[in-house]
Amino acid sequence: MSKDTPAPKIATLDSIVVNPLGNGAGSQVLLISDRTTGQRYALKIAKRDDEDDNPTKYIDQTRREFEAAQKLNHPVIVKIYDYAEKKGMIGLFKPVEGRLLMEYVKGKTIDEVEMLKHDQLVLIFIQVAAAMAHMHRRGVYHGDLKPSNIMLSDSGKVKLIDLGTCWIKGEKKNRIQGTPQYMAPEQIADKIVNERTDVYNLGATMYKLFTGVVPSVSKKLKQPIEINPKIPGSLNDLIMKCMTSNPDHRPAGMFEIQNQLSAIAKHMGVSEADLKGANSDV
Questions:
Q1: DSSP β-ladder status, 107-109 and 150-153
Q2: Which residue segment(s) compose the domain that 250 sits in?
Q3: Are 115 and 87 contained in the same domain?
Q4: 3 located within any domain
């Protein structure tokens, strides 16, 4: 979609459902197509769950995803165009459904892509770190960075998806969020989500992609280089530093990680053109 094209609105979009894309906790995602233009979008539909103590939690999560996305504008972060709610008589006309209209990314998550080389992975993570640095500058923290939330499109573009568990700075923090295998210790123990927990999440994600092993917080962590001796020592050290249990000993932020990964990529022989492309915010 062109930068000059107005963002589509759910209320006025004349679309048909092409096929389902997937189901998550309390929601489903459909591939839809604009009848007029043929433009394709992803439509996330979150439903009310009256069996839960908080019946609208999935709707609230979808609304939060939209609110967070309005603060962001980065090519690696999936675009979210519109949000709408359907009200019902249940609970005095409270929402029974939340709908999120998003950019459709045709591709695979990075853990589904086979035979990615080390230098390709480093370039992917440079782009992820750049996108996360943008989020943090805007006061948004992802909270659930993991392999299944990073996509590689069929055209080779990296996309960071699923802001459903993100935390916006200043928002009341009263929930544990994330995926246990990738969560920082303080996320689990104290419900903390901030720049340093996202750094841990990124480190755990890199650990999984470079070793093929899901990290465990309950066991002593093997160094990545013990599992995969082919990775550079500097990359091994960066991953371990990101995943240290003391948040004060982790890299100060995503920009630092982006710079370190760029230096590692250069040492691996990645071209200046590829490095420039990975570090671009345009």
A1: antiparallel
A2: 107-278
A3: no
A4: no
